[in-house]
Amino acid sequence: MCREHRIKVTPQRLEIYKVAIQSKEHPSAEDIYHSVRAKLPTISLDTVYRTLSSLERWGLLFKVAVVDDRSRFDADLSPHHHVICTECNNITDFLWPEFDSLALPEDVTGWGSLKLKASQFVGVCSKCDAKNKNKVFSIRSSAQ
Ligand SMILES: [Zn+2]
Ligand SMILES: [Zn+2]
Question: In the CATH hierarchy, which top-level class contains the domain 1-76?
Answer without folding.
Answer: mainly alpha
